[in-house]
C-alpha cells in the first residue's frame, strides 16, 4: 500500500513556515500556501495566493542604490477565516497551545486537512476540522470547508471570513528592505448576503485581479450574515447559533480571475459568475479528486518505502505547479514553485531538470513551457544585440517580459555586505532552452513544433554561441570568454578587473551540442520551411558552415587527465576543506564564509555545485563520449571517472541540484556513493537541508530531478525517434519500482523494475508496436503485451 | 504574370467606404481599414484599428427596450496625419476634387500606396505618395510613410499627426442608435520630441490598450516638433521647411500593445519600448515583405485570369485576418474579418468555411482557432445545462467569454420595425465546431489535439445532440425539435406560438455525423485517456449506446423524392418568385420584403441560403450517401439531383455563402450552372453584390470558401489518414491552376491542374512517400518526384 499522506502532529510555530511550504496547494494557475487561515497574525506572515506568471515591478532603495525588482505577485489572500464565541477572543493555535493539532496533506486527493481542538481565554473548547482544496478541474476555484464543534458549551459563534488585499511580498527576510507592496486600486463589495468580492490590480504591470467568495453554513443558515466591504479587504461576518457537540460547517468557495485569463470579459464579472455557479464543497471535492486521479495516472511512479513517499510529495508539487492548466498560460518554470517568494518567482534554468520528466507524461505542458521561451525569443535577441552578438541570449533570471531580471547586488547575510552579482553571465541558460526543445521533440515526435517555433529558437541560440566564440589562432580553437558556469562560486578570476571566467567546460560543451543539433535540424527541415526560416532571421548561408566549425573546435580545457571547469582552474590552489568543515560545520555556502573572512571563493578549486559533472547528467555516456570525440577530445571511461572523482572531492553542494547531479552521475556509472547524494536530493526540501530555504519556497528543479532520476537515470531510458532505449542501472536502495510513460504515439508504456528484471508493457489501445533497444538488442512489443527482460 | 495589385483610379466619395473595406490591412493581431488618414472628417467616418478578439459590452436603449451588445472594439486610430501650408487649409481629397488620385493595394507585399495631387483653397498643389503597412513580422507594429512634394511653391508645411482615442463603433448605420463608445480612461503623453503615446481601456471588459507613435522626417529634421497631449487624443504638430519640387518624407511608426498580450509587463511600457526599437520605414517594409512572401508560399494558389486575381484578394484577407500571429491569441473567426463592424465582430459558424482551407496551409492557426472553441467549452456546457440538456450547446453568435451574444431584436430597415430574432436557435453551430475538429485532425494527423481537448469538445457536442433528440415511438425515429437551420428564412411555423422548426435536415444529418465520429473517436482513444475523459465529463457508459442508436435513427423528412428542409416544409405553398422579382428586382432579402408587406417568409417554400444543399458542401458524394445509408435512407445520385434542383429554384441567396455552396454542389456533380454561382461567390465582396454590406466588413467565410472551392471542390481533395484522395472536377472557367498544400508530414505537396491532367509533386525534403488515391487507383509518390495523371 502506498502511503499518500504527508502528516504533521502537534503545532510548533518554529516549523509552521516549513510545513506551509510543503503543504502548499495549487493547480498550475495559482497556489495557496499552507497557512493557518484562522491565525490572528498579520498578512505579511500569511501570504496567500500566487498566480502563475503574474509579475510586477517595484523600485526600492537599498545600500544607497535604487534597485528595481520584479516579483511573482502575492495576490489577495482568500484564506482568512476565524471564529470566536460571541464576546470571547479568537480561537487560534498561535494564542494558546492547541489541545490537539494534526495537519494532513492528502497527496492523492490534493487536499489539506487540519484537525484541532482549540481553547479560548475563557476556557471554551472548539473542535475544528478544516479541509482545503485549490481546484484541479476548474483552475479558477478554491474552497475551504470548516467544521466547528463546540465542546461543553452552546451559544453564539462569530465567524469572520475575509478576502484580504492588504498583502505584501514579505516572506523572505532578506528582501524585507525592498518594497513588497504590489497591489493597488482596490475595490470591494458584496452581492447578496452570501458573496463578497475584491478587485484590484498590480501596481506597475496593471494586471487586474478579481476574487469572489461565497460562504454557506450548514446545516442551518447563519443567524446574521454581514458583508463589510473595506478599503483594502472585504470582511464577511456571520453569527451562528451553536450547540454543544453539534457540528456546524462553514463552506467558503472562492473564484479568482485575472485580466490575463482567456475566454472572459471583465475579470470581476467572471469571478462572480464562476463562484455563483460553483458546486458545494462535496461536489467540488469530488471533481477535484477525479482530476487529481487523472494526473496521478498520467504520471504514475510507484516506488517502495520512504523514498517512494518523498517522491510522491515531489511529484505532487511538480504536478500542481505545472499542471495541464499551465498549458493554457504564458508562464515559465519558476525556480521555487508558485508558493515561495525566494528568487522573486523568477524563471532560471530549472526547466532543464523539469521538462525531461514532463515530456514523458504531459507533453502538452512541456510544449507550452517551451512556447513561453519562444514568445520571449525577441527579448533574447535584443539582449544579444545589446551585447554585440547575433542570435538569442536568454536571461539568467526573467519574469514577465523576458528581459534580464538578475539582481545587480546581493546580500551576504554573514558579512552584512551587499556585493556585486555577476550571475547574469550564466549564458548557458540558452543551451538549457535548446536542450529542452530537442529532448521534447525526441520524446513526443512533435515535428510541428520542432520545425516551427522550436526551430527558430534553437537556431537563434546556436547562432549566439557561434557568434560568441572567438577564434584563437595560437590554440587553433574557438573560445567563449567572460561567462559563468552553473557553479556560481567562480564569477571572476582572482584579482581580475572584469567578471566572468573563460572556456567554462559546461558552457562550451553544451554550446557545441546545440550547434550540432542546429545543423541536424537544418538538414531535417522541409525545404520551404528552411528557406523561410533562413530568410526570416536573415541567416547568412555561411553561418551554418561556421556552426559546423565551431561545433568541432570549441576549446575544452583539461588538467592532469581531468576536464577543467574553466581555463585557469588548474592554477587555483586547493582549499583546506577539512579545516573549513571543522571550523564552520555546514560549508554549503562557502562563498559567504570566505567573503566574510575577507577572502574569495574565486581563489580556490572549490565548487558550489556540479558544473563539469552536469555534462554527465545531460548526456548518456555514449552521447557524451561522441560529443567530446566530435570536439577532438577523446573521453574514455577512465578519464570521466577521474573527472568525477576530482569534483566529488571539491564541491560544497550549496545548491539543491548538486546532490541530484552527483547521485545521477554516480548511479549511471554504477558506482558506490550514489545513494548518499540521491538521498540528499530526496531530503533536500522535506528536511530543509539548506537551512531555512524551503520555507521561502520549495526547490522545483531538484524535486523534478529526483523523479527523473528514477525515470531516466535508473532505467537508462532515452526516448529517441527510432526506439525507446533502455539501460537500467538500479541503485540497491531504489531497485524496485513501476512507472508509466507516454512516448510519441504510445500513451501507456509501463516500465517495471525489480528482482533484477525489467518489464516493459504496451497498452492494448496503442495503435502500433513499440520498438525497444536494450543492451544491443532490439525488441518489438505488440500492443496489449509485455516483455520481461533479465538485466545484464 | 500574376497581377498582384488591386488598384483604384480617381477619388469618389461614394465608393470610398467599399474601397476602405477591400483595402484593409492587418496581421492577425490587428487590422486597419483603408481610410484616408489626411481626411478632415470626424473619427466616426474613419474608424482605425481593430484588435483581434478584443470585445467590450455596452447597454443601450432601443425600441423602448434595454439591449446589451458586445462589439469587437474599434481601437484608437493611429492613421491621422494631415498637412497644410502654414496659414492655409488642410489638403484633403474631401475638400476639393484631387488633381490626381490613385490607390494601389499591393497584395504580394501587403502594402497600400496612395498617390495624389491635392490642391488647397489658395491653389497650392502638393504631390503625395503614401505607403502604409500593418506589419506582418512584428504584429505590434504599423507604419505610414508619407512623401510630400510641393509643386510650384516653397515655404512652411504644417503636419499634424495624431493618435485618436475619440473613436466610436459607428460604421454600421443601423447600429447608430446603439451606444458605440468603448474606450475610456484615456491618458496621453510624449517621450522626447518624436514620440507620443495614448493609453486607454475598454469600458466594460477593462482591456488596456496602449499605443505609441514615433514620427521622423527626412531628409531634414522638422523645424519644430510639438507633441500636444490632450484628453482623448494626442496630437503631434510639426513644422517643415519645404521647397518646390523637393520631397520630404514623414515616417510615422506605431506600436500597439494590449493587456492581453503575452510576454510583456505594462502595455504602455511595451508599446514605448517597441516603437523605440523599431527600424525605419524601409527596414520595416523589408521584413514585412519577407513575412508576406512566406505567407504566400505557404498558401500558394495560382489561378489564371480575373478569377485568379480575385482569389488572391480573398486569400490576402484570409491570411491577414487569420495569420500565424493568430495562433498565439485567444480569438475566433470573426464573420466580417477584423475590419468590419457589421455583426459586431461576432463569431458565428464561418469557421466552417475557413478552417478546411487553413488546415492544409497553416495547421497551427487552425489548431489555435479550435482551441478558442475548446476554451469556451465550459460556457457551451453551461448554456446546454440552462436549456435542460447534457453536453455542449455552442452559441450562434459569441464574443469574449463564449456566451450567446445573438441579438433578441433586429431591425427591418424596409419596415422600420424591430422584430424578435430567434437565430440563436441555430444550434447547428456546434456541429460546425465538431466537423472542423475532425477535418483538422484528418489533415494534420494531430492526435495530441484529437485525443486531448479536441476529444472532450467533440464528445460534449455529440452528447448534446443525443440528449436533444426525442424518441418518437410512432415514427420509430429520433427527432430534434424547435431549431433553426442555416436558412434563416424559417425561424418558426406559420402562426406557431413557439419559435423554431422541427427535424431540420441539415441539423439532423450533421448531428448524426457528429455522433458517428464521436463513436469512432471513443474506439480510437488510448484506453487511459478514454477512461479519464469519460470520468471527467461523468459519462454514463450507456450514453455511447444511445449515440449509436440516435446516429442511426435520426429522422430526415422527405417529400416527393426530395430531402425536405424540415418537417412540414412540403406543406408550405410555393412563392410567386417571378412576381416578386418583377416587383422588387433584387429579392435577396425576401424576408424583409414580405415582413414589410405584412406577410412572412416563414409561410413559403423559400430559402435565404443553402440549407439542405450544405450537406453536399460538407460531405463528398460517397460520404454523404454512406451517412444517409447509416440513417436508413437510401440516397442515390438521382435523389440528390432532384433535391439540388428543388432548392436551386427556391433560394434567394440572401447570404454570400449561398452562391458558394450552390456552385460547389453543382461543380462536384459536374453539372452546368456551377460557374454562375461560383462567379457570384467570387464577386460577392469585390462588387458588393449584397448592396452596401461589404463596406460594413468583408465576408470572410465566403472569401475563404472560394479558395477552398479551388483547393478541395475542383480537385476532389480529401486529406484522409490513409491517403490523400483526389477526384478532380474542374470547371471550364477554372480548369488551370496550381496549388500547394501541407498534408500531415508532407509540408510541400503541389497539385497542378490543366489540359485535362493532374500533376502531383512531393518535395524532395519530405521524409516519406505520399500515398494518393485517385479514381480507384492508389499511387505512391516518392519525395522529390511528381506524377502527371490523365483525368478520367
UniProtKB/TrEMBL annotation, chains A, B:
Substrate binds at residues 349-350, 608-609. Gene3D superfamilies: 1.50.10.10, Glycoside hydrolase, family 65, N-terminal domain. Keywords: Glycosidase, Glycosyltransferase, Hydrolase, Transferase. Residues 717-780 form the Glycoside hydrolase family 65 C-terminal domain. Pfam families: Glyco_hydro_65C (PF03633), Glyco_hydro_65m (PF03632), Glyco_hydro_65N (PF03636). It comes from the Bacteria. Residues 8-260 form the Glycoside hydrolase family 65 N-terminal domain. InterPro entries: 6-hairpin_glycosidase_sf, 6hp_glycosidase-like_sf, Gal_mutarotase_sf_dom, GH65_N, Glyco_hydro_65_C, Glyco_hydro_65_M, Glyco_hydro_65_N, Malt_Pase/Glycosyl_Hdrlase. Belongs to the glycosyl hydrolase 65 family. This is Glycoside hydrolase family 65 protein. It comes from Streptomyces griseoviridis.
Amino acid at each position: 500500500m502506498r502511503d499518500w499522506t504527508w502528516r504533521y502532529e502537534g503545532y510548533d510555530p518554529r516549523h509552521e513556515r516549513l510545513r506551509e511550504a510543503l503543504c502548499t496547494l495549487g493547480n498550475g494557475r495559482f497556489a495557496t500556501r499552507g497557512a493557518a487561515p484562522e491565525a490572528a497574525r498579520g498578512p505579511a506572515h500569511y501570504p496567500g495566493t500566487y498566480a502563475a506568471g503574474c509579475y510586477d515591478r517595484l523600485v526600492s532603495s537599498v545600500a544607497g542604490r535604487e534597485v528595481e525588482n520584479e516579483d511573482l505577485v502575492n495576490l489577495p489572500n482568500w484564506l482568512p477565516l476565524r471564529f470566536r464565541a460571541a464576546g470571547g477572543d479568537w480561537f487560534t493555535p498561535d494564542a494558546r497551545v492547541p489541545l490537539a493539532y494534526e495537519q494532513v496533506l492528502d497527496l492523492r486527493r490534493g487536499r489539506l486537512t487540519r484537525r484541532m481542538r482549540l481553547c479560548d481565554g475563557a476556557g471554551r473548547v472548539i473542535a475544528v476540522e478544516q479541509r482545503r482544496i485549490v481546484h484541479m478541474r476548474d483552475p479558477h476555484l478554491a474552497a475551504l470547508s470548516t467544521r466547528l464543534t463546540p465542546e461543553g458549551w452552546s451559544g453564539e459563534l462569530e465567524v469572520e471570513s475575509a478576502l484580504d488585499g492588504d498583502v505584501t511580498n514579505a516572506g523572505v527576510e532578506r528582501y524585507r528592505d525592498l518594497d513588497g507592496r504590489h497591489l493597488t486600486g482596490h475595490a470591494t463589495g458584496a452581492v447578496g448576503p452570501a458573496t463578497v468580492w475584491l478587485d484590484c490590480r498590480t501596481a506597475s504591470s496593471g494586471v487586474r485581479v478579481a476574487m469572489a467568495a461565497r460562504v454557506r453554513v450548514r446545516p442551518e443558515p447563519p443567524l446574521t450574515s454581514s458583508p463589510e466591504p473595506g478599503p483594502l479587504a472585504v470582511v464577511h461576518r456571520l453569527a451562528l447559533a451553536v450547540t454543544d457537540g453539534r457540528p456546524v460547517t462553514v463552506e467558503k468557495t472562492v473564484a479568482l480571475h485575472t485580466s490575463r485569463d482567456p475566454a472572459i470579459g471583465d475579470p470581476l464579472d467572471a469571478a462572480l459568475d464562476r463562484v455563483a455557479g460553483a458546486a458545494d464543497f462535496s461536489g467540488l471535492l469530488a471533481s477535484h479528486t477525479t482530476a487529481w486521479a487523472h494526473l496521478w495516472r498520467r504520471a504514475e511512479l510507484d516506488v517502495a518505502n520512504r523514498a517512494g513517499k518523498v517522491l510522491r510529495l515531489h511529484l505532487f508539487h511538480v504536478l500542481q505547479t505545472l499542471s495541464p492548466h499551465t498549458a493554457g498560460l504564458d508562464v515559465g518554470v519558476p525556480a521555487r514553485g508558485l508558493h515561495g517568494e525566494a528568487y522573486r518567482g523568477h524563471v532560471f534554468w530549472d526547466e532543464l531538470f523539469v521538462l525531461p520528466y514532463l515530456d514523458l507524461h504531459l507533453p502538452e505542458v512541456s510544449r507550452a513551457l517551451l512556447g513561453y521561451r519562444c514568445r520571449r525569443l525577441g527579448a533574447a535577441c535584443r539582449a544579444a544585440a545589446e551585447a554585440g552578438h547575433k542570435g538569442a541570449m536568454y536571461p539568467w533570471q526573467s519574469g514577465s517580459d523576458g528581459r534580464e531580471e538578475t539582481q545587480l547586488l546581493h546580500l551576504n547575510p554573514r558579512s552584512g555586505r551587499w556585493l556585486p552579482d555577476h550571475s547574469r553571465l550564466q549564458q548557458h541558460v540558452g543551451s538549457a532552452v535548446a536542450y529542452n526543445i530537442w529532448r521534447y521533440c525526441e520524446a513526443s515526435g512533435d515535428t510541428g513544433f520542432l520545425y516551427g517555433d522550436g526551430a527558430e529558437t534553437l537556431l537563434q541560440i546556436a547562432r549566439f554561441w557561434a557568434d560568441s566564440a572567438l577564434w584563437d589562432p595560437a590554440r587553433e580553437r574557438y573560445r567563449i570568454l567572460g561567462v559563468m558556469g552553473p557553479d556560481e562560486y567562480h564569477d571572476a578570476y582572482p584579482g581580475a578587473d572584469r567578471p566572468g571566467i573563460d572556456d567554462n567546460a559546461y558552457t562550451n560543451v553544451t554550446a557545441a551540442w546545440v550547434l550540432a543539433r542546429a545543423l541536424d535540424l537544418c538538414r531535417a527541415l522541409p525545404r520551404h520551411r528552411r528557406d523561410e526560416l533562413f530568410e526570416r532571421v536573415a541567416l547568412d548561408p555561411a553561418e551554418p558552415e561556421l556552426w559546423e566549425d565551431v561545433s568541432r573546435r570549441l576549446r575544452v580545457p583539461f588538467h592532469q587527465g581531468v576536464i577543467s571547469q574553466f581555463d585557469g582552474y588548474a592554477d587555483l590552489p586547493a582549499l583546506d576543506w577539512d579545516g573549513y568543515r571543522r571550523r564552520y560545520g555546514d560549508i554549503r555556502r562557502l562563498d559567504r564564509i570566505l567573503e566574510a573572512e575577507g577572502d574569495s571563493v574565486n581563489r580556490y578549486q572549490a565548487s558550489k555545485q556540479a558544473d563539469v559533472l552536469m555534462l554527465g547528467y545531460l548526456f548518456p555516456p555514449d552521447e557524451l563520449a561522441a560529443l567530446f570525440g566530435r570536439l577532438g577530445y577523446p573521453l574514455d571511461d577512465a578519464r570521466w571517472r577521474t573527472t568525477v572523482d576530482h569534483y566529488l572531492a571539491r564541491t560544497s553542494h550549496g545548491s539543491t541540484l548538486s546532490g541530484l547531479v552527483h547521485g545521477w552521475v554516480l548511479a549511471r556509472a554504477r558506482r558506490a556513493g550514489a545513494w548518499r547524494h540521491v538521498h540528499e536530493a530526496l531530503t533536500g526540501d522535506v528536511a530543509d537541508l539548506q537551512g531555512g530555504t524551503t520555507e521561502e519556497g520549495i526547490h522545483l528543479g531538484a524535486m523534478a530531478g529526483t523523479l527523473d532520476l528514477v525515470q531516466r537515470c535508473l532505467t537508462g531510458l532515452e526516448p529517441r525517434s527510432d526506439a525507446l532505449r533502455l539501460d537500467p542501472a538500479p541503485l540497491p536502495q531504489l531497485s524496485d519500482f513501476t512507472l508509466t510513460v507516454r512516448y510519441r504515439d504510445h500513451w501507456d508504456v509501463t516500465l517495471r523494475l525489480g528482482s533484477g528484471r525489467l518489464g516493459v508493457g504496451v497498452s492494448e489501445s496503442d495503435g502500433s508496436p513499440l520498438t525497444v533497444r536494450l543492451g544491443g538488442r532490439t525488441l518489438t512489443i505488440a500492443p496489449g503485451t509485455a516483455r520481461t527482460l533479465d538485466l545484464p
